[in-house]
Design brief:
Number of helices: 2
Number of domains: 1
Strand content: under 5%
Length: 52
């Protein structure tokens, strides 16, 4: 994806498709769309700071 884990988990309302419940994507992006990328970056493990 070219985005860091830190950016994907950031609590930003305008971060399209991020892995946080507060993201507000535009168009076809929705909050949580990038959560699989976070799990992949974490070596296919769900860490304690995983937001969902």
């Amino acid at each position: 994806m070219g985005t860091s884990r830190k950016d994907l988990l950031a609590d930003r309302k305008m971060w399209a498709g991020a892995c946080n419940p507060n993201a507000s994507g535009s168009g076809y992006w929705n909050p949580g769309d990038a959560c699989s990328a976070v799990i992949m970056l974490d070596g296919w493990k769900i860490k304690e700071d995983y937001p969902w």
